[in-house]
Amino acid sequence: ANFILxxxxxxxxxxxxxxxxxxxxxxxxxxxAAILLTFPLLLPLAEKVGVHPLHFGLVVVVNM
Length: 64
What we know:
By secondary structure, the chain is mainly α. Helices cover 84% and strands 0% of the residues.
C-alpha cells in the first residue's frame, strides 16, 4: 500500500493502475473471487488517494 502512495497521490493515476491490476487479475481469477479478495485491500488506499468509494466500486465492477 505504501508503494502506491510513494509513486503518486494522483487519483487518476491510481485509477489507471487499478484498471491495469484488475485486467491482469481478471485473466487469472473468477471475477467474484477477485473482487472479494482485492476490494477490501484497495478501498482504504483509494480513500487515502482521494477517490470516492462509490466511484472506485464502479470502476472495479465495470473492469470485471
